[in-house]
């Protein structure tokens, strides 16, 4: 008996010894991560199509292919595998075809393609001259509604020298798009059988988000038709007959935004999202689920008392409920509003984050969901349960020793309660103090949640405790919490960041002598504000940030925000100088700081980082500036993404790690 038992132990030990040891995450793991997006349920409810992007290491870019998986999860089929990316998969109403957008075979503009689900190669069905931005099938399967932006002829000359930019708009630049001209995006009707393209709308206004009525006779869409759309963020809902030369009817007249329309199954109503604020500028806001008769009338606000942002409205097939995603205090759950009672039922939740939502005509919902230690996968929500459909990410997480993730609550010096996230390196005793990085989210409207967080997992993989702080200005805690930083940047947010820091030190989590801070976008901006306010941080990494805010006026894409929130610089100079204190008081900064940004960023131009780098260089504070060539606000080149985190870790290691013992403590 003892021999058999000993043999069993020996066999188990041998198997365990042969298993590969798990390791902390490294920046190079970015190249292994695949991204799942855009799940689309087939008309018969049997399949879910989706996009899957992977890194092509030779070309140093991501390539996206189309896949589909059966609703029961038993079958998975790759539909495309070429060198070009495909996007926006949509089922034809009869379920026979899957359409998609691609730029292939030397085409300069993206075109629509059809793929027979029974097999064969995709076939191009359009020869569009202009930028295809959106498209939707009519329920009868005969026509497609297209959103096409007028073609840009500025480079049509034979010479390779581009014609000058001729600018006369109030809002004249935008990240990725560059300098803005007056080309409009209009609606078109495309006959699938004859391949004929008819113009549906014309003029100087943009039309977006087309959705068909169930009888295929009308299209609802979104447009800003104020005197100067550049000067406000208003959008309204319109309905137009699906025939050339038809006249659009305006359904809403809210001064804020109305967007994301979806028709009820019987065609009598349209659900959409309406802004809480009725104002020309609405950054600090949360969308309200609203329903209006398709013929016009008084809108019904379903989620107005929820005091949480909702998104992705989708009707249930029976037309009795509308499902939405709800952002609520570090979580995003799936809920459904009963149209008659107005009651909200939670369909699926927990310590996770849902994204994307599509109904199955036979019942249930397809969605994306991620967890603290699992990147997004497709899930099916049925009968109050979430069932995992894809297993793409198992290969990614298999070799990794991921950080343990938990929530914690801190209290700021003014008494405000703040909800935060904590990432502890695996196999480190809870009572052991470690170098700690507060990595601050951007936005500012947004939240750190229980979804998978690549950035913080990578930093934790380097042996750091990492904290995400949902400072005032973040979403998920109600509108008042979000709006409290209006025109008062770098004040309450910093108070909340320092309150979270105090909590981590007082509870024996963070080593007070080894504190770092960093972030990207508004996270970079708050990094600058924080190191100017408090000198306890021994290292900082400020990405795509700014400090001398008065110089951002006319340099970035936020003229609407500036003029509405801060006022004109020559009239409200004191307010502008107040929010520019990190640069104007740069001599208070003692923290060695790494600055980063994209060369072509029009969101937060690289000048914001250049100015702070120059200031610290002149002051003799250790600093470095990294500029990523031809990159916008978000880095898209995979090796640049790896490089960014390599540099983060080297910078923090240099200033926060003083002994080999700290490194050894993070090893499994």
Strand content: 25-35%
CATH topology of the domain at 400-665: Rossmann fold
Which overall shape is indicated by the principal axes computed on the Cα atoms? globular
Largest sheet: 8 strands, mixed
Given the helix and strand composition, which structural class is it? alpha+beta
Distance between the termini: 34 Å
Q: Based on the coordinates given, report the CATH architecture of the domain at 400-665.
A: 3-Layer(aba) Sandwich
Q: What percentage of residues falls in helices of 4 or more residues?
A: 10-25%
Could you tell me the number of beta strands? 38
**Sequence stretches where pLDDT stays below 50 over 5 or more residues:** 1-10, 659-668
Mean pLDDT across the residues is 94
- Name of the top-level CATH class of the domain at 400-665: Alpha Beta
What is the radius of gyration computed over CA atoms, rounded to a whole number of angstroms? 26 Å
Can you list the strand order of the major beta sheet?
A: 31-32-34-33-35-36-37-38
Q: What's the CATH H-level superfamily name of the domain at 400-665?
A: Alpha/Beta hydrolase fold, catalytic domain
Q: What's the helix count?
A: 12
Pfam family, one: Peptidase_S9
Protein name: Acyl-peptide hydrolase
Signal peptide: 1-17
Keywords: Acetylation, Aminopeptidase, Hydrolase, Protease, Serine protease, Signal
């Amino acid at each position: 008996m003892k021999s058999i038992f000993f043999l069993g132990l020996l066999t188990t030990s041998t198997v365990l010894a042969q298993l590969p040891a798990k390791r902390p995450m490294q920046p190079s793991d970015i190249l292994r991560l695949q991204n799942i997006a855009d799940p689309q349920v087939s008309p018969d409810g049997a399949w879910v199509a989706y996009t899957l992007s992977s890194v092509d290491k030779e070309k140093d870019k991501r390539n996206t292919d189309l896949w589909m998986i059966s609703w029961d999860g038993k079958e998975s089929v790759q539909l495309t595998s070429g060198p070009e990316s495909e996007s926006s998969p949509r089922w034809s109403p009869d379920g026979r075809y899957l359409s998609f957008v691609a730029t292939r075979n030397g085409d300069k503009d993206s075109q629509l393609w059809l793929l027979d689900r029974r097999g064969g190669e995709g076939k191009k069905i359009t020869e569009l001259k202009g930028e295809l931005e959106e498209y939707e099938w009519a329920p009868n399967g005969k026509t497609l509604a297209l959103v096409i932006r007028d073609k840009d002829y500025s480079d049509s000359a034979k010479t390779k020298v581009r014609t000058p930019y001729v600018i006369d708009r109030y809002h004249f630049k935008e990240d990725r798009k560059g300098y803005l001209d007056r080309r409009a995006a209009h609606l078109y009707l495309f006959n699938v059988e004859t391949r004929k393209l008819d113009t549906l709308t014309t003029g100087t206004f943009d039309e977006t988000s087309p959705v068909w009525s169930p009888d295929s006779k009308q299209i609802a869409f979104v447009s800003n038709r104020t005197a100067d759309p550049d000067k406000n963020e208003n959008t309204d809902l319109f309905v137009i007959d699906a025939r050339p030369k038809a006249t659009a009817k305006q359904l809403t007249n809210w001064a804020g935004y109305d967007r994301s329309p979806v028709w009820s199954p019987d065609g009598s109503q349209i659900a959409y999202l309406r802004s809480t604020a009725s104002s020309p500028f609405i950054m600090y806001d949360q969308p309200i689920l609203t329903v209006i008769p398709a013929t016009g009338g008084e809108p019904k606000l379903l989620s107005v008392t929820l005091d949480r942002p909702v998104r992705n409205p989708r009707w249930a097939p029976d037309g009795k409920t509308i499902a939405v995603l709800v952002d609520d205090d570090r979580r995003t759950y799936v809920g459904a509003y009963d149209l008659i009672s107005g009651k909200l039922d939670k369909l699926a939740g927990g310590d996770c984050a849902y994204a994307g939502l599509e109904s199955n005509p036979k019942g249930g919902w397809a969605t994306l969901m991620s967890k603290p230690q699992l990147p997004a996968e497709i899930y099916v929500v049925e009968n109050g349960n979430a069932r995992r459909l894809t297993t793409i990410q198992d290969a990614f997480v298999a070799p990794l020793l991921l950080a343990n993730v938990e929530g914690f609550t801190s209290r700021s010096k003014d008494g405000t309660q703040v909800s935060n996230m904590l990432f502890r390196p695996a196999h480190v005793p809870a009572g052991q103090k470690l170098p700690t990085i507060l990595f601050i989210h951007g936005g500012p409207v947004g939240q750190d949640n229980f979804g998978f967080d690549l950035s913080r997992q990578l930093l934790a993989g380097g042996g750091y405790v990492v904290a995400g702080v949902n400072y005032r200005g973040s979403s998920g805690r109600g509108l008042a919490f979000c709006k409290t930083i209006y025109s008062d940047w770098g004040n309450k947010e910093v108070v909340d960041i320092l309150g979270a820091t105090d909590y981590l030190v007082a509870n024996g989590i963070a080593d007070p002598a080894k504190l770092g801070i960093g972030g990207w976008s508004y996270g970079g901006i708050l990094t600058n504000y924080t190191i100017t306010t408090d000198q306890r941080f021994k290292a900082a990494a400020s990405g795509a940030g700014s400090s001398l805010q008065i110089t951002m006026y006319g340099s970035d894409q936020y003229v609407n925000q500036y003029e509405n929130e801060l006022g004109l610089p020559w009239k409200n100079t004191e307010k502008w100088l107040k929010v520019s204190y990190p640069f104007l008081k740069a001599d208070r900064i003692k923290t060695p700081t790494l600055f980063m940004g994209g060369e072509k960023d029009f969101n937060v131009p690289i000048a914001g980082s250049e100015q702070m780098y120059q200031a610290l260089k002149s002051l003799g504070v250790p600093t470095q500036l990294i500029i990523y060539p031809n990159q916008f606000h978000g880095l898209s080149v995979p090796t640049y993404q790896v490089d960014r985190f390599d540099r983060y870790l080297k910078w923090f290691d240099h200033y926060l790690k003083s002994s080999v013992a700290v490194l050894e403590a993070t090893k499994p």
